[in-house]
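Sample pair:
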Amino acid sequence: QVQLVESGGGLVQAGGSLRLSCAASGGTFSSYAMAWFRQAPGKEREFVGSIRWRSSETYYGDSVKGRFTISGLNAKNTVYLQMSSLKSEDTAVYYCAADGGSGWDYWGQGTQVTVSS
């Protein structure tokens, strides 16, 4: 059973930085891409960023471009999200996801990020 486990969430002041990590474990697992999504209270889940392993291309949602950086290690099925210049509107539960060939097939349980203003 594949599991994605996020870590690194917490409370940070506006303007600060935080780094999230996500690692896959369990079973035979390989992915085409990994991504981060987030969901704030009362809002729909929002795409934050993704990385495609073969091309190393990265993609970002408009609200985080220039502030967040996604990186990772394909061989370890690990993805990171470096978040800088955090704003109160970045407060959300952040989820890691992996594309096993049928879209975002695997999801983590989420990690809370709270930005205080």
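The radius of gyration is 13 Å.
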